[in-house]
Prior knowledge:
Layout: E1 4-8, H1 13-22, E2 30-34, E3 40-44, E4 52-56, H2 63-79, E5 84-89, H3 108-119, E6 123-127, E7 142-145, H4 148-158, E8 163-167, H5 173-183, E9 187-194, E10 201-207, E11 214-222, H6 226-237, E12 242-250, H7 256-262, E13 267-271, E14 285-288, H8 291-303
Parallel strand pairs: 1-4, 4-5, 5-6, 6-7, 8-9, 8-11, 11-12, 12-13, 13-14
Antiparallel strand pairs: 2-3, 9-10
Helix pairs in contact: 1-8, 4-5
Amino acid sequence: MDELKIFSGSAHPKLAKAVAEYLNMPLASLEVFxxxxxxxxxxxxxxxxxxxxxxxxxxxxxxxxxxVELLITIDALKRASAKRITAVVPYYxxxxxxxxxxPRVPITARLIADLLTVAGAxxxxxxxxxxxxxxxxxxxxxxxxxxxxxxxxxxxxxxFDDLVVVATDIGISKRARDLAEKLNxxxxxxxxxxxxxxxxxxxxxxxxxxxxxxxxxxxxxIDTAGSLTNTVSTLIEHGASxxxxxxxxxxFSGPAVQRIAxxxxxxVIVTDSIPDREEKKLDKITxxxxxxxxxxxxxxxxxxxxxxxxxxx
Length: 313
């Protein structure tokens, strides 16, 4: 492990420190600051020549600043002759723009992949992409981890007798089905329609039986929580006794926390793939750490072991 160097960007130093602690090693040193003209400067403060390097930087708010900082750090590591550079991006922003679903629109998820590759990344390590096909946008190896096992273990400890897992839309149904299988409970699916490019969702119907059951909604991320609150209300209208929600990425933009606070949802379980700011904390929001997941993946990548074996049961 002497040849391993783990760096933290400025997006989520708390997570990076927890990953380093899991591996029983210090974070490597770098300097990051922004000039008065908003140009970002990065300097690597130790020798990385022929080293295996990892830079931990979720693309969370401020998204574009954190993205550019990551690209500059990768470039700095490349020019410092690092042997291999792995971009550890727990939250991959722009993941929703993964296809042309309207005329004359970009595929930004592909553009981000190109930027990371051109900057000099040799590998991507990420968690629960919005769409699996994003892996195919890269010409470098991509390791996509999942937080489903963390969420499963949490709800197994809850010990609900009459639980049903609910996919918040058709697109997330496979992930929800996997969680339902791991918990050995039935699956229901929300049929919904997104209204244009605004963050407004019209919930239409519930496919499956939720009456008298404890419903657990599953999504990859919660952004403004508009979809979440609509889903919770619809499930209660259809007779669910309680509603819990879980996701990997707690984006919590705009009115999200206020919406969750006023919603009848019992508890929202998320991970720390995105830093949890003080103003976004609520008693009904539970945060699970993905640091051991990332740390173990980094150890296995560095030593040439299987990542898939982490999820075999």
